[in-house]
Design a protein that fits this description.
The chain is mainly α. It has helices at 2-16, 19-41, 52-83, 87-90, 96-122, 133-157, 161-177, 190-196, 200-213, 220-244; strands at 46-47, 50-51. 76% of the residues lie in helices and 2% in strands. A hairpin with a 2-residue loop joins strand 1 (46-47) and strand 2. The longest helix is centred in the N-terminal third of the chain and has 32 residues, at 52-83.
Length: 250
Amino acid sequence: MTSFLTLLWKEVLRFWKVGFQTVAAPVVTAMLYLLIFSHVLEEHVKVHDVPYTAFLVPGLVMMSILQNAFANSSSSLIQSKVTGSIVFVLLPPISYRAFWAAYVLAAAARGLVVGAGVLFVTFWFAVLRFEAPLWILVFALLGGGILGTLGVIAGIWADKFDQLAAFQNFLIMPLTFLSGVFYSIHSLPPVWQQVSHFNPVFYMIDGFRYGFFGVSDVSPWTSVAVVGACFCMLAAFTLALLKRGYKLRT
């Protein structure tokens, strides 16, 4: 437990000591999204009888959680590999399970801190309801865990920053932006509605939004089942990579 807690504390301090870059900057970015989209579409779009600005806020909060959770674990690993300091993490007697847990928990912590910041600043722009707070917490934790785990996978796989950027730009960004952050999938043509159901991030956004308004595009139980299954599969895959030492010890 000592090695696990030390690594976890190191990863938390890593983003907290540069909070202006890792926390404040994403909050400002989300606020700009809100200002632009709400100004343009507030009078023209209403989803589930919810004002568009209010509808947009949970999506932006969840998107911030996901993107920052991924960024934390992936950037930490790739920097350690490029600089060679990864050896100082691998040499101590820490199990591969504790290694994974420390990186993922720290990533989820950064995502939740940024998400809380986004939620705080958006109180000035929209009146939010909290119909099911437990669902909000469940999807926030699972979403942060999934993207933190994906960040570990990306950090293990990538050998240089260009590869990590490609992973983020061609996988993470499309999945988040095409998941219903800015719209309800019921506004899409039928074929694209069906395609959206194959995007696991859609279920994270939709279930998280259900916690605020009590309405969603699919049942929250369906969403939590899909998200939970994705987390378990990704965790098992990542633990297998770490146990093998893929691109870390070999």
